[in-house]
Each structure stands twice: as structure tokens, then as C-alpha cells.
Amino acid sequence: ADVHVGTHVRAYVEGIIADQAGREAGPRPIDANHGDLLDAFIDVHGDVGAPGGAGCCLEVGARLGRFEMNFGKQRVIGAFDWANTRRSYDGAGAWAKGPTWRLDGWVARPVVVEADEFDEPNDGDADALFAGLYYANTARSDLKWDAYLTVLDRDAVKWLATTIEDETRWTLGLRGDGPIGGSRFDWDAEAAWQFGSFGDQSISAGMVTAEIGWKPCV
């Protein structure tokens, strides 16, 4: 259900029933959710006019409830489109959007999928908080780029089935894509650095990925 009240308020609700059949080892955690609430949020948004009444130049908005998030190529933040179940969060978000850019921010708790129980955040002892900022720029047709900073803070995280400590992970990333000259080739690249702590130990990790694509003449 997607209900719009005037031009500034939106209420959205979506459920999910997911299952699988025929897998000899039975369903994986990403396969089954036997009836639950996937999304349930309220948006309030509007335009902010330019100084002197020259017209709208900025859209701002806020969201509260349970919601999914998809940013960039979904390598770091996505709803998990390739699984039966999906990722959603309980919390709040806000955004500001101009003609060629958008900035999103959020503070939320990841929802834990339970196949036969109501999905709630922080199932068990592992209390988790996920927050971040994501900026996307489309000012140039030959180069679209994103930058982001996130933090995941979790209590009582288990490592190697024996060690349990509190954990904080910051992730700083940059992504870009665009055409290669006037050809049918294009590129996409992303890099991120993760830092933080696990108990009294330091965390330092990174990732780099790149793709080259080609579009046939149609």
C-alpha cells in the first residue's frame, strides 16, 4: 500500500512471504520468511525555494519507520535483491536533493529475519546500530560519483566461535562510473576502507572493485 496525502506526506506498507522448495539441505537463512512486515514508514518532504523567489532549488525530506536502503551498486548498502528475504531497518532517515546531487543520512537498527517469528532488530544479545551519510553527484554526464561514510556498532559480537567483544566498524568509500570516450564501452569502480575496533584490537580492511562494460548497437 502506497498512500500519498497531498504533495508532502507519504505512507508505505509492504509485507513479505518467502520460501523455497527442493533444496536437499533445507532452506538457508536468506531463503525463508513465512509472513512478516518488510516496510512500514512515513515520509514528509517538500521543496525549499531559492532566495528571492526564483523557484525551487532544493528538496528536503525525512523518513520514520521500517525501510529498505539501496545506494550505488548495492555492494555495501542494499536490500539484498538476489535473495528471497530482504534487508530492512528500523529507524529514521533524512535527505536533501538538488538538481544534480543528493545527500542521505540515517540512524537505524538492522532487522533480523526470523522465518517463523516477527522480525525485530537486535535479535538475541547482539545489539546493533547502523548510521551513515551517502552523497551522490550526477552533475557530469561522463562521470557520476558517490561518496559515503557509515558506522556499524554492535555489542557482544562472536568471532571464531569463541571470542565475544563489542565491535565498531567505520567504512569510508568512493564510487564512480561513466562512458569511455564516445564508444559503447563504460566503466564502474569502487573502493572502500574499513577501520574501527573489536574489543581492544584494531580493525583495518579494504576493498577495490572495477568493471568494464560494452553495449551492443540496438
Low-confidence runs (pLDDT<50, min 5 residues)?
Answer: none
Oligomer description: single chain
Helix fraction bin: under 10%
Shape: globular
The DSSP helix count reads 0
Number of strands: 12
Give a short overview:
The chain is mainly beta. The chain is built from no helices and twelve strands.
Verbal overview:
With 218 residues, this protein is mainly β. The protein is built from no helices and twelve strands. The protein has strands spanning 2-5, 9-18, 33-49, 56-67, 89-97, 101-112, 120-121, 128-140, 143-159, 163-179, 185-198, 201-214. A hairpin with a 6-residue loop joins strand 3 (33-49) and strand 4. The relative contact order is 0.11. The mean pLDDT is 92.
Which SSEs are present, and which pair or pack?
Blueprint: E1 2-5, E2 9-18, E3 33-49, E4 56-67, E5 89-97, E6 101-112, E7 120-121, E8 128-140, E9 143-159, E10 163-179, E11 185-198, E12 201-214
Antiparallel strand pairs: 1-2, 2-3, 3-4, 4-5, 5-6, 6-7, 6-8, 8-9, 9-10, 10-11, 11-12
